[in-house]
TrEMBL record:
NCBIfam families: transpos_IS630 (NF033545)
Domain of life of the organism encoding this protein: Bacteria
A Pfam family the protein falls into: HTH_23
SUPFAM superfamilies linked to this entry: Homeodomain-like
Residue ranges annotated for the Winged helix-turn helix domain, each copy included: 105-163
GO molecular function, one term: nucleic acid binding
Residue ranges of every copy of the Tc1-like transposase DDE domain listed in the record: 182-321
The name this protein goes by in its record: Transposase
The organism of origin for this protein: Rippkaea orientalis (strain PCC 8801 / RF-1)
Length: 356
């Protein structure tokens, strides 16, 4: 059975509560909270859950308080200058240069390999924890690289950004009586083949996700105005110029494009976007991305958001998947500021408020 720890009455429960409420240092504050809860009769496990600390640490704090009162609490690091750093400035600079390349074994760097390198430089054993701490201290983070096509032309991409801004200005001058907006559109294929993503779980838990491989798909057409964060969605079984013509017609009708509004729509060079038989509604001008440049497409950032309710799940039918996906699309339509924060690149024309 869970046990209650007896707390010595160095301070009353009210005094402990006051100490907890008034403490400025977050470490000291949490320690006063633990002792106050224990003194109030809470069980050790309850206090650990409420404060986010381990049962062992709660018991250790109780022992310190019972032995020394409030003198046994507090953040001892404030008055502790700490030990000398493992690496001096020169050695730290060397480490920064070394980790730009491959690790000595030809693989990727991690905390253990950094610690091994430090051991060779210092001539003494260094624990893997120290290597990880140095990586963190140098503000290195584990990130998955964004794929960039080797055939992409950086000069062409920069010229295209300038061209896009010029095209917006040109439309504003051509249609002074209309509101000119810059939108983007892309398609995303989703289906019954499961999508997996990392999730937060307790450290002792091994998460699982059901698997049922089925090669059936649906296409999500996504429109976004990066400046305003407005979005618009279509779910269709295929992608072709006939369907895309219908999607464009509905998009134009929904947003009143034509008489009082002109839209410049950024697309990639997919064949259904460039087909000569594509029907483009009045009020819409198409602007195509440079070749091999998906990173310039703001709509690409929509898909991790739309995938969220369907990851780590399997569905029996496309209809079942759509029933889960559609409410998510409606939620995103109601969160324009959030969407704009992810899709409005710093170089995006027509606004000076985009911060990405």
């Amino acid at each position: 059975m869970p046990r209650r720890i007896e707390i010595v009455s160095h301070l009353s429960i009210t005094e402990l509560q006051t100490k907890y409420r008034s403490a400025k240092n977050p470490v000291t504050r949490s320690q006063y909270q633990i002792i106050w809860l224990l003194a109030s009769g809470k069980k050790t496990e309850e206090v650990a859950i409420a404060t986010g600390y381990t049962v062992e640490w709660v018991r250790e704090l109780a022992r310190r308080y019972n032995r020394s009162g409030i003198e046994g609490l507090g953040d001892g690091r404030q008055n502790n200058p700490g030990r000398e750093p493992w690496l001096d400035e020169v050695q730290t600079s060397q480490l920064l240069q070394v980790i730009q390349g491959s690790a000595p074994d030809g693989g990727l760097w991690n905390g253990r390999k950094v610690a091994d390198w430090m051991s060779e430089v210092l001539g003494k054993p260094v624990s893997p924890q120290r290597g990880w701490e140095y990586l963190k201290a140098m503000e290195y983070r584990l990130r998955i690289p964004r794929p960039e096509n080797k055939q992409a032309d950086p000069i062409e991409q920069e010229e295209w950004k300038k061209k896009l801004a010029f095209k917006v200005k040109e439309l504003q001058e051509k249609y002074p009586e209309k509101k000119v907006e810059l939108w983007t559109e892309d398609e995303h294929r989703i289906g019954l083949k499961p999508i997996y993503r990392r999730i937060w779980v307790p450290w002792w838990d091994v998460p699982t996700a059901s698997i049922k491989w089925q090669y059936k798909w649906v296409w999500l057409y996504g429109f976004v105005n990066p400046e305003s964060g407005e979005t618009y969605w279509w779910l269709m079984p295929f992608v072709n110029q006939e369907i895309f013509s219908q999607v464009l017609e509905d998009f134009a009708r929904y947003f009143g494009i034509g008489e009082k509004k002109q839209v410049l729509l950024v697309l990639d060079g997919a064949r259904w976007h460039t087909s000569k038989s594509l029907k483009i509604p009045a009020g819409i001008d198409l602007e195509f991305l440079p070749s091999y440049s998906p990173e310039l497409q703001p709509a690409e950032r929509l898909w991790p958001l739309t995938n969220e309710p369907i990851v780590n799940r399997s569905f029996e039918t496309i209809e079942e998947l759509e029933e889960v996906l559609i409410p998510r699309l409606k939620v995103l339509m109601e969160q324009p500021e959030f969407v704009s924060g992810l899709t409005c690149f710093h170089w995006w024309p027509t606004t000076d408020t985009c911060i990405n």
